[in-house]
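This part of the workshop introduces the protein records we will be handling. The question running through the whole workshop is how a given chain folds. To make this concrete, we reproduce a full record directly below:
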Amino acid sequence: MKKVTQSPRILDVVGMQGAQRLLDRLADMLSKIQKALGEYLERERASFPRFYFVGDEDLLEIMGNSKDVARLQKHLKKMFAGVTAIDVGEEDRIITALHSREGERVDLVQPVHTKDIRINDWLKGLEAEMKHTLARLLGMSLAHFQKMDIETVTPEEYMEWLDKFPAQVIALTAEIWWTNQMEIALSDGKGVEGVEKAVSATLALLADSVFEGTNLLLEERRSRLW
C-alpha cells in the first residue's frame, strides 16, 4: 500500500514484484471473511428466525448495536408485523409497551429486560410476552363482551368495549363469539336466525356510530368488525 501511494500509476503498480501474489492472497482472505460472516449471520438467524425478515446489512447493524435498544426500533416493524415502536427506559433498558402504526399502545403484562442480555434472548422474550399480553387481553375482552346483550346493548356500552382493547383482540373476540353462537345454533337445530339478528343489530350499531365524531384509532377497530 505504501508503494502504491508513492507511485499510484497503474503500470507501476502491476509491475511491482509480487503484486499478483499479494492481490490473490488478499482476494482469498476477503472470500474467507465473507464466508465466515455469512455463516455467523446464518447462526444468528437460526437462533432467532425473525432475523430472516431483515437483510444482511440490517442484521449486522442490529448485532453491532445490540446494547442500544432505542436505535434498533426502526428494524422492529420488519421482524414484528404491526409493531412500529416500543417504550424502553433510557437507564434500565426495560421494554414496557408496544405501539402500532395506527397509534395503538399495548402495555406489556410483564416488562421485558434487555440490559446485559443477548439480543437474541431478549427478542425471544419480547415475542413471548407479546403473545402472553394479547392472550390476557383476549380473555378480558371475551369476559367483557359476554356481559353484554348484543341485541340490547347501548352504543355507549359497545363503544366502551371497542375503546378498551386493541383492534386485533376486538376482531378475534367477535370471531370467537360468532363461531360459538353458530355452533350452539346448529347443534340445537334451531337455525341461525338468532345469530343473524344479533349480527344485524351489531352492524346497525356500527353504522350509526360512523356519523359520530370518533378518532382514527376507533375507526380502525370498528373497521375490523364490518
Residues 1-47 form one domain. The mean pLDDT is 85. Residues 19-47 form the longest helix (29 residues). The radius of gyration is 28 Å.
